[in-house]
Amino acid sequence: MGGRRWVHALTAASVTVVAAVWPVSAAAAAAVPCPTVRVTPQPSRPPKPAPPPDVPELKTVGGAALATPGLVLPAGAKRPPAITASSWLVADLDTGEVLGACGAHEYGTPASVQKLLLSATLIPRLDPATQVRVTREDLNFERGSSAVGLLLDGVYSVELLWLGLLLQSGNDAANVLARLGGGAEGAAGGVRAMNAEARRLGAYQTTAVTPSGLDGKGQFTSAYDLALIARACFALPAFRRYTLVERVQVPRQPRAKPPDPRGFQIQNENQLIFAYDGAIGGKTGFTSLARHTYVGAADRGGRRLVVTLLGAESRPLRGWQQGAALLDWGFAQPSGAAVGRLVAPGEAAPTPTPTPAARKTPVRAAEVAQPSPERDRRSLVTAGVSATILLVLVLTLWTFRRRGVQGRQ
User: Fold this and answer.
1) CA–centroid distance for 85 within its chain
2) What is this structure's pTM?
């Protein structure tokens, strides 16, 4: 029996050595797969950009339970519907309770739901009655992308620009508003203000590169951050009014280039407001890189819920329809059942885990060598071989000892 105890102890020690050399993420191991619908054939899309370096503290904003790439639900909650989105979140706009989520803090590209951050940043700062003349720079955006149809040298009110932004997802309107809100820095100043507002709201995983949401290098957000931004938008009376407008007439522009003597009408692209009971607005988005993104909100019996989703496909359900299905699921959950919360604007930023203090004793050159995957593999192999040799020796000694005892019987 003594030999067996030695074997078990040695085996446990070997496992400890291997675990120390090759740790496994507890969050990844515990992730619960999200209910998803597989789309076939897979649509072609550009390669996904590499997300920013992982900062564990950012993934616990709103609660430790949200720090998972998988599904998180309150105890006893009914399983949510299967959709195509890569990440999503449902929250209460008023209490801030997060009812459930899939990959709440996973990075994704926003597409035109980025315009909500522009709205949260600049609606409080710009006078809606101000008249703005469109410049050539304002019309510098990706051809074929969504636009209101603003004309060079046309003059439009700020309020109309907000309607064009939110109803028609106008990238031209986004450029004009960002320029106006950016002051002397122009549109770049508007984007800078957007990023400052994201930090104020606690949306630490959000980086705006373009005011419109057109793809830009390093531009990311998360389902959780979008919920914070949407909550800030729905706190603004002007936004709540704009996002429910069904259609609006764009006035004629006889002095524009080319002139438009008649004007035209634009309609709200967010079908949720036409088809979902209690809908109070939202925003659609799409680029070939981001795929379909969506933010939608509804009010039932005085309970206001918001849904955010990233990386969805349009089949078998469009983005707003997937949002509607998640809203239905959310309204079926009891009040107070939550897995986290939306932080309030101005809450302290998460503090990164400090690195160990530097030693006061001299450090040899060999000790400051950079980590090497090859050296790590050699260390793992060495540890395993050493443990194996010890195990073989113990087993051999134990076998000879047992044979000796049997020979004396």
Assistant:
1) 11
2) 0.80
